[in-house]
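Hi R.,

Here's the chain you asked about this morning:
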Amino acid sequence: MKASTERKVIRWLHILLSIPVIGYIYGPVAQLHYAAIAVRWVFFPVIILSGFWLWKGHWFKGLWR
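And the predicted structure, written out as tokens:
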């Protein structure tokens, strides 16, 4: 996969998974038990990891080579 394509995919993953977090903060998602668990334990860690990969992915790739 080309670097530009990888960056686009990860960026869109990061943006789309941020939508439920916004709903968790400002909407009624916090009262829905399963949705709250999904946001806390699935979406938020993936957002953190994807953001970290967008920021320092080139550094990790350099370590693996």
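The helical segments are 3-26, 33-64.

Let me know if you need anything else.
M.
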